[in-house]
Amino acid sequence: MPVTDEPILTLDRRTCLALLGGVSIGRVAWADDDGRVTVLPVNFVMDGDAVVFRTSSGAKLAAVARRRPMTFEADDAEPALRTGWSVLVQGPAEIITDVDELRRLESRGLEPWATDAKPYFVRVAARHVTGRRLPLRPGGVHVERSGGDDVQ
């Protein structure tokens, strides 16, 4: 397969945030005191410029409570066309405690996929947003015919 000379495209903030609004799964990451990085999947919604996800007690909630800088990443890819995008959001995270805001967010339908209870809502502020997109290029799409002589 020939390689193109087209560069990876750098996306502006507005495009990055719009792309995030079209997917529902991403990953949240943080580093502990010992430098070990944890990356865990979350389903999320965009709330303005912020990423909001639900969680239970555990590592994610503890990282937020300890005010660890958080990084959120989401992406989408089309392997047959060898294209895709990736967006990183970096910023402080907070546990949402305002009752009215919790009600508003609950009405957005952010339901965890995991069966355990996820009573805490966490917001990651989009202080720094970066994104990249692979340009559209020919991929490995092949058309195969089957079924006999009447196929044109």
Q: Work out the helix count.
A: 3
Low-confidence stretches: none
Structural class determined from secondary elements: alpha+beta
Radius of gyration: 20 Å
In CATH, what is the homologous superfamily? Electron Transport, Fmn-binding Protein, Chain A
CATH class: Mainly Beta
Tell me the CATH architecture: Roll
Strand content: 35-45%
What portion of residues is helical? 10-25%
Strand order of the largest sheet: 1-9-6-5-2-3-4-8-7
Give the terminus-to-terminus CA distance: 27 Å
Number of domains: 1
At CATH level 3, the topology is Pnp Oxidase, Chain A
Helix-strand topology string: EHEEEHEEEHEE
Q: Report the sheet with the most strands, covering strand number, pairing sense and barrel closure.
A: 9 strands, antiparallel
Gross geometry: globular
InterPro entries: Pyridox_Oxase-rel, Split_barrel_FMN-bd
Organism: Actinomadura rubrobrunea
Protein name: Pyridoxamine 5'-phosphate oxidase
Write the layout of secondary structure elements.
Blueprint (H helix, E strand, L loop, with lengths): L8 E3 L1 H8 L4 E7 L5 E11 L2 E6 L3 H7 L4 E9 L4 E9 L1 E3 L3 H8 L13 E5 L3 E7 L18
Antiparallel strand pairs: 1-9, 2-3, 2-5, 3-4, 4-8, 5-6, 6-9, 7-8
Structural notes for this entry:
With 152 residues, this protein is an alpha+beta fold. The chain has a single domain, classed as Electron Transport, Fmn-binding Protein, Chain A (Pnp Oxidase, Chain A, Roll), CATH 2.30.110. 15% of the residues lie in helices and 39% in strands. The chain is built from 3 helices and 9 strands, in the order E-H-E-E-E-H-E-E-E-H-E-E. The protein has helices spanning 13-20, 59-65, 99-106; strands at 9-11, 25-31, 37-47, 50-55, 70-78, 83-91, 93-95, 120-124, 128-134. Strands 1-9-6-5-2-3-4-8-7 form a 9-stranded antiparallel sheet, covered by helices on one side. The longest helix has 8 residues, at 13-20. The radius of gyration is 20 Å and the shape is globular. It starts with 8 loop residues before the first strand and ends in an 18-residue tail after the last strand. The model has no long low-confidence stretch (mean pLDDT 87).
